[in-house]
Specification:
With 382 residues, the chain is of the alpha+beta class. It folds into two domains: 3-39 and 140-214 and 329-372; 58-123 and 218-326, no CATH class. 52% of the residues lie in helices and 12% in strands. It has eleven helices and seven strands. It has helices at residues 3-35, 37-44, 62-71, 126-136, 140-169, 183-213, 215-230, 246-256, 313-326, 331-357, 367-372; strands at 77-83, 89-95, 106-111, 261-266, 277-283, 293-299, 305-308. A seven-stranded antiparallel sheet has the order 3-2-1-4-5-6-7, covered by helices on one side. Helix 1 (3-35) crosses helix 5 (140-169), helix 1 (3-35) packs across helix 10 (331-357) and helix 6 (183-213) packs across helix 9 (313-326). The radius of gyration is 26 Å and the shape is elongated. 27% of the residues are buried.
Amino acid sequence: MTRNTVRAWSVVHKWTSLVSTAFMLMLCLTGLPLIFHHEIDEALGTHGTYEAPPLGTPTLSLDRMMAVALAERPGEVPLYLSFDEDRPVINVTTGPRPDADDAAMHFASFDWTSAQALPPHPQGGVMDFILTLHIEMFMGLPGMLFLGFMGLVVFAAIVSGVVLYAPFMRKLDFGFVRVTRSTRVKWLDYHNLLGVVTVAWLSVVTLTGTINTLSLPIIQYWQADQLAQMTAPYRNLPPARAEASIQQAVDTALAAAPNMRVQFVAFPGVAYSTQHHYAVFMQGDTPLTKHLLTPALIDARTGDLTAIRPMPWYAQALLLSGPLHFGDYGGLPLKILWALLDIAAIVVLGSGLYLWLSRRRAPASDPVVAQLGDRPALAPAE
């Protein structure tokens, strides 16, 4: 690369890094406990105590479970029905009307074998605060989209850093640090080394995080595209009352996809369904396919299957990006690896900020330019 090309990439790397550093530090710091959110919730007893029934205890009809849940919330309608993955517990979300906003919804859990209500989930805890800050900075959709844009800026910083430092790093042994040089040069080497170590991981979490911020637009596009195609015959019909058995609807969906299990059911009128259907969302049984959903639409009046198809590629990308972002694919070992890489990324960000604040030369003698310019210097002059 010529000196002018190096200088241009250096400017890109410097300013994209500076613009995004504060937000990336916030995301890395809040993301660290979120990697272990399941373990932290269990340690804090967030979900309360639950004594599982003996293995093989038969479960009750979903129709009976829904009757029990609705009896505790008179005047409300069912919105969603979901199933815990590792225990016989179902979760029922109700609200005053099908299009109720999140604040008006009520979430309750029940033992599937006895219909006994479980202790309510506490709201507003520390982990909820950290999660909201990480996802949207308490600004709703604008906050999510802003963080998505910051993700693109971070990715530009990653790409420019690779372009700048890869030629220089290839000339050195891996892990080489000039420990006899000044503090700034040592931190430059640590910054470069940890940047190389974390570049693939940081690229993955940055891109998956950006995809996650687009969840609402992606789901809205799926509704206007695929869901509209699946329900075209019902387009001009008046809304239907949910008269069919919910147990029958789930059984019908499972019969159409025998190697899958139900993750959740959306009732007629809610965002993930239509005015005429139960939408039964099913998942696979492997670490990968359990994150991929296939919706089956069941006529809420007759209980007949009207359509079933996998989610399109853009929705599948969204479904996969969430678990990959937090390292939820490989159990605790992968989470520990994710946490170590997160800490390394924090050091990269902090050292980069230190290098910028402590620079003592004008951009014309920037250490990067000195390393990668026309002359084949192996080390920046200090």
